[in-house]
Specification:
Layout lengths: L40 H10 L2 H13 L9 E5 L6 H13 L5 E6 L3 H9 L2 H6 L3 E6 L20 E7 L4 H9 L2 H7 L2 E3 L6 E3 L3 E7 L20 E7 L8 H13 L2 E12 L4 H9 L10 H12 L6 E2 L5 H4 E5 L13 H14 L4 H8 L3 H13 L3 E11 L11
Parallel strand pairs: 1-2, 1-8, 2-3, 4-7, 8-9
Antiparallel strand pairs: 3-7, 5-6, 9-12, 10-12, 11-12
Helix pairs in contact: 1-12, 2-3, 8-10, 9-12, 9-14, 12-14
């Protein structure tokens, strides 16, 4: 049952309506546009602090992780977009619960310097609770990050840094991680793309962190420059692309390289926005034709299968039904906030979440913000549903297990 007693189909949308072919780019669409959409720090931070999406995703990811059967010498997980590491930290905590004695190698991709700083702030207690942990953070591309190795000829040399944490207390780790500020500022520099204005990595960087007193025990699993297997038991890919990009683009640039990085028996857990919720209803009251979520999980998996070609037989690429794939998260509100009069701060928080989730560009907001229509639409929908929630969809890609040899065979 959805929040407020409403199901996704109650929003007046038509989930069964045939959609246009989304496996190919729209006419006139430039696939060179970066698929990373978390460009506005203000919107991002306001969203993550008012909505519980990360907590809900982390809980679902933990369930998938519990299905893993790691093989020696370590459990390897990859986060395809660390953000502030809320999901990653909870996933690492879940890994400790399920595999308390297994060495853990957690690799996270993140281009944002501020997110790397925020993410590392969540890690001291992870090293304390699970001391046989190796954490790796990199700003390499989706193609290169899983293997921790740039593949482009003539690429800028990698800035490879290794940090050995000393001591045995969380506070000691906090101090040492905070001291990494200058190193991070140097390694996570970006410059604007001359065509799009979006940030581009100046220096490919890899940061490896582990406890010095566990270096001997972790020797076999610590990544070293040029020698890392780059295959994973679990890969987390939460909102790693712009919704409006084609299924073909998402499969080629993100899903295919991540899928190929799975170990036998490994699982890739992917999440993207789904729409058909009060958030999209608010958007469509302002822009009636707006529908950023054309590409569904079925389209992505079909495009991925085509991209993998003969390799597709090595993976389970079945799309789950709606009851297994769809889930929702909410904007935090007090019962007293959704009454006859909704406070301005609540309306602004809801509007921010709506335009963030639906990826509405700032340029399109200029004409809307000069009137009060956007707040009126937001208030009407919040009253209608007695709150605000959004729908996501998730799916799992699993690499098939290696066939076990028949006993006695040569």
């Amino acid at each position: 049952m959805a929040y407020g007693g409403k199901m996704p189909s109650d929003t007046g949308l038509e989930p069964g309506k045939p959609r246009e072919d989304v496996t190919k780019p729209p006419v006139g669409h430039d696939n060179s546009t970066p698929f990373r959409f978390y460009d506005n720090r203000q919107k991002y931070l306001a969203f993550v602090n008012t909505c519980n999406e990360k907590a809900v995703i982390a809980a679902r990811a933990a369930k998938e992780l519990s299905r893993i059967h790691p093989r020696p010498p370590a459990l390897r997980i990859f986060d395809a977009g660390m953000g502030d590491a809320t999901v990653l930290a909870r996933l690492m905590s879940s890994a400790h619960r399920s595999f308390p004695t297994v060495p853990l190698v957690a690799v996270a991709k993140e281009i944002s310097l501020e997110d790397v700083r925020l993410g590392l702030e969540r890690m001291p207690d992870r090293f304390h609770e699970h001391p046989h942990t190796v954490l790796v953070v990199t700003n390499l591309s989706y193609m290169d990050a899983p293997q921790l190795m740039p593949h482009q000829a003539g690429a800028v040399p990698v800035n490879w840094q290794t940090v050995r944490l000393r001591g045995q207390s969380v506070y000691e780790y906090v101090e040492q991680i905070e001291a990494l500020g200058p190193m991070l500022a140097d390694g996570w520099q970006t410059k604007p793309n001359p065509e799009t204005g979006n940030p581009v990595v100046v220096r490919p960087s890899i940061l490896v962190i582990y406890r010095e007193d566990y270096e001997f025990l972790l020797d076999r699993v610590i990544p070293r420059h040029g020698s890392f297997p780059g295959n994973y038991d679990f890969i987390m890919a939460s909102q790693p692309w712009r919704a409006r990009m084609s299924a073909q683009f998402k499969a080629e640039k993100v899903l295919a390289p991540l899928t190929r990085s799975l170990r036998p028996g490994g699982r890739l857990f992917a999440v993207q926005s789904y729409g058909e919720d009060p958030g999209l209803e608010i958007v469509q009251r302002i822009w009636p034709a707006e529908n950023p979520f054309r590409v569904r999980r079925h389209d992505l998996l079909s495009a991925l299968k085509a991209k993998l070609g003969g390799e597709a037989k090595d993976f389970n690429l079945a799309a789950p039904p709606d009851e297994a794939a769809l889930f929702q998260y909410q904007m935090h509100t007090l019962p007293s906030e959704i009454g006859d009069r909704i406070g301005t701060s609540t309306l602004f928080a809801a509007w921010n979440a709506v335009i963030y989730v639906n990826q509405i560009e700032d340029e399109r907001l200029d004409s809307v913000l000069t009137t009060g229509s956007y707040l009126e639409a937001t208030q009407a929908v919040l009253h209608k549903y007695e709150g605000l929630w959004f729908n996501d969809e998730a799916f799992v890609i699993a690499r098939r297990h290696d066939e076990l040899p028949v006993q006695g065979s040569k």
